[in-house]
Design goal:
The chain contains 26 helices and 2 strands. By secondary structure, it is mostly helical. The chain has one domain: Sodium/glucose cotransporter (Up-down Bundle).
Length: 692
């Protein structure tokens, strides 16, 4: 106890000095900016110093000890495990995507805040202390010991890899955005460059290096998130507490929305004109889709020939350069085949439908033009909250964190610290969304196209789907309906939108980098450990020496990283959808088997296999047939969006475990003794040892 207490005191001293150093570093770069140091140089310094810092911690934490590599030696204090868990948790989705979703969806985006924070109540009540008392290394470890045999363990490995891989793609996507924007690299190149940073820490020291790196990353990401929000809050309201001040700004946003929706005002009239053009484009796209269904490839060939003839005709009569350029762009962007045409035109149809609709009030719950739309939004809101809560309590890379604490009590306490540190960002995200929206409504909308700020073209060069401003009605004035800003862009671009010093922009980029890296480290480690520990060591070669086990883990880490980077380069979806999908998958695969395995002795191997396979299968099938990326475009079940596929998979998982267990033999006395050991604090045995 004395040694642990001294270790905790040292950590507090080190990280207090580190936090002061981070703040001092920001002040120093602010001075350099005032002295005229170029913005790009400041961006390189920010990204370079922070990544070098993480690499340094990885080098100092290098280890070849199995316990240190897999569970950080089981000596992480609750306070610091809470910070590491918060960093592991607050991924690119939380840092980059959450405020962006609130910006776009308004009230409906609060489903993410409620689901993710509420999920930690389930973690504390149902899983964290019991898994810590079990005392092994991974979630498949528990499934293998609790249900017996390699079947449940293998399904657990597959599910852990699937959830973590889906989740890590979102993190690498966020890294690609940041690196490509602030270094000028192509997005695909930026993905692989960011990947090197992810690998460094987990490669050298496993969970030990990842833990202490994540603590340092939490400090940077929370400082980076809070400074611009506080700055904007003071700028607009004079109040440095954005969580309180943003109510006033929300009133201003609501008033501005009413003006833009009122066609009797000059601003509203211009918006109505643009929406009318977009509605006509929507009608034209619907006609093209009908013609495509009727004519197929022949229709595409005829349209391609018509566009080519149009370009030739414009050149022949020496039309204006802009007119020729538009025609050439239309020809070059024309889909190559029917599959591409379906995907592109459906996406254009949905984009035009959203932009041609009146502005939905930011503060209105389940906003919509009719009762059916409002009911569907309400239904999807509740379904998403449920899936995110249950998924939170089943994500393998989060549950692994509670194996690293010194005791069961510390595991439970670390959940409290995690929720506290997470809430600092989650209670700030709604304020950031409203402050950013106010700046867009007042600074960008109504400005001249000839005087667009440089950040518009800079972000458009990264991805036009994220940033695009086009003069649809040719009046030279920016209307809201002419602006496309992706949710993944809002946090990173807010300092530039608000005209804050560039050092704040670079700080936010460093924070986003820290958020993506911290979560990606934990996810990559989860995948590699599942393969090296649960498959190789537990099932193939139980006598493998430590060196070989760790070497295999690192080799697999590299393979998984390269595969994830390749899939990310295909841009399979926005950050928040991919993360949300991981929650539905994790909840469907793990939650029923884990909870019933702890609280119901009768649950057995057959039930676990039936529940995990059926729950995960239903969830995967629903996502595959309804998510546009896969091109199936099947109708939704009860209008539930694919991100909430767990609403079908989780109940099926519970039913599968119960029916499979009731129809087969009860578990052995040894397994039932394991349940008693894990459940009850008065059972004899060391908390830190394996109960298997």
């Amino acid at each position: 106890m004395a040694a642990q207490s001294q270790f905790t005191s040292q950590l507090k001293r080190y990280y207090s000095l580190y936090t002061g150093g981070v703040i001092g570093f920001v002040v120093l770069l602010s001075i350099l900016e005032q002295m005229g140091v170029p913005n790009q140089t400041l961006g390189y310094i920010f990204l370079g110093v922070t990544v070098s810092l993480y690499a340094g911690i990885g080098i100092l934490s290098k280890t070849s000890d199995v316990s240190e590599y897999y569970v950080a030696g089981r000596r992480v204090p609750a306070l610091f495990n809470g910070m590491a868990t918060a960093a592991d948790w607050m991924s690119a989705a939380s840092f980059i995507g959450l405020a962006g979703t609130l910006y776009i969806s308004g009230y409906d985006g609060l489903a993410f805040v409620m689901g993710w924070t509420g999920g930690y109540c389930l973690v504390a009540l149902f899983l964290a202390p019991y898994l810590r008392k079990f005392g092994q290394y991974t979630v498949p470890d528990f499934l293998g010991a609790r249900y017996g045999g390699d079947g449940p363990r293998m399904i657990g490995v597959f599910a852990a890899i699937l959830c973590s891989f889906t989740y890590v793609i979102a993190q690498i996507y966020g890294l690609g955005l940041i690196v490509s924007r602030f270094t000028g690299m192509d997005f695909g190149v930026g993905v692989f460059v960011g990947l090197g940073s992810i690998l460094f820490c987990s490669f050298l020291g496993g969970m030990r290096a990842v833990t202490w790196t994540q603590v340092s990353q939490y400090v940077i990401l929370i400082v980076a998130y809070m400074i611009p929000v506080i700055w904007l809050s003071v700028k607009h309201t004079g109040n440095p507490v954005p969580q309180i001040a943003y109510g006033y700004v929300l009133e201003q946003v609501t008033a501005r929305e009413k003006v833009l929706n009122d066609a009797d005002t000059p601003d509203g009239a211009r918006e109505a004109e643009v929406r009318g053009i977009l509605k006509q484009r929507q009608t034209d796209t619907e006609a093209r889709l009908r013609a495509l269904d009727a004519g197929g490839e022949d229709y595409l060939a005829a349209e391609r020939s018509r566009l080519a003839a149009q370009v030739a005709e414009l050149r022949k009569r020496h039309a204006a350069d802009a007119e020729i350029a538009d025609a050439e762009q239309a020809l070059n962007a024309f889909p190559k085949d029917m599959a591409a045409a379906n995907n592109v035109w459906h996406a254009e149809l949905e984009a035009d439908r959203l932009r041609s609709s009146p502005i939905a009030a930011h503060a209105e719950p389940y906003a919509g033009p009719d009762e059916e739309t409002r009911d569907n939004k309400r239904k999807n809101f509740l379904a998403l909250v449920f899936c995110l809560m249950v998924g939170t309590a089943a994500l393998p890379h989060i549950l692994m964190r509670f194996y690293t604490t010194t005791s069961v009590k510390e595991a439970r306490l670390s959940v409290f610290w995690s929720l506290l540190f997470i809430s600092l960002l989650y209670l700030t995200a709604p304020a950031l969304a409203v402050l950013a929206k106010y700046d867009v409504y007042t600074l960008l909308v109504g400005s001249s196209f000839s005087e667009l700020p440089s950040w518009v073209s800079a972000w458009a060069s990264v991805d036009k789907a994220l940033m695009n401003v086009s003069d649809i009605n040719r009046d030279g004035i920016v209307q809201l309906a002419e602006v496309t800003i992706g949710g993944d862009l809002i946090v990173l671009a807010t300092p530039e939108i608000a005209g804050l010093p560039y050092v704040v922009t670079a700080l936010v980029a460093a924070g986003g980098l820290a958020a993506a890296l911290s979560t990606a480290d934990g996810l990559m480690l989860t995948i590699a450990n599942a393969l090296s520990h649960d498959v190789y060591y537990k099932m193939i070669d139980p006598k493998a020496p430590t060196g070989r086990r760790l070497a295999i883990s690192k080799g697999l880490l590299l393979v998984v990283a390269v595969c994830a980077a390749y899939v990310t380069s295909l841009k399979p979806g926005d950050i928040l959808f991919m993360v949300g999908a991981a929650f539905s998958l994790a909840g469907s695969a793990f939650f029923p088997a884990l909870v019933l395995g702890i609280f119901w002795k009768r649950a057995n191997k057959a039930g676990a296999i039936a529940g995990m396979v059926s729950g995960l299968s239903v969830c995967m099938i629903y996502m595959y047939i309804t998510y546009p990326f896969f091109g199936v475009n099947a109708p939704l079940w009860w209008d539930i969006n694919p991100i909430s596929a767990g609403i079908f998979g989780i109940p099926v998982g519970f039913v599968g475990v119960i029916i499979g267990s009731v129809l087969s033999r009860p578990p052995t006395a040894k397994v039932q003794a394991l349940v008693d050991y894990v459940r009850y604090p008065n059972m004899a045995g060391d908390e830190g040892r394996s109960a298997s």
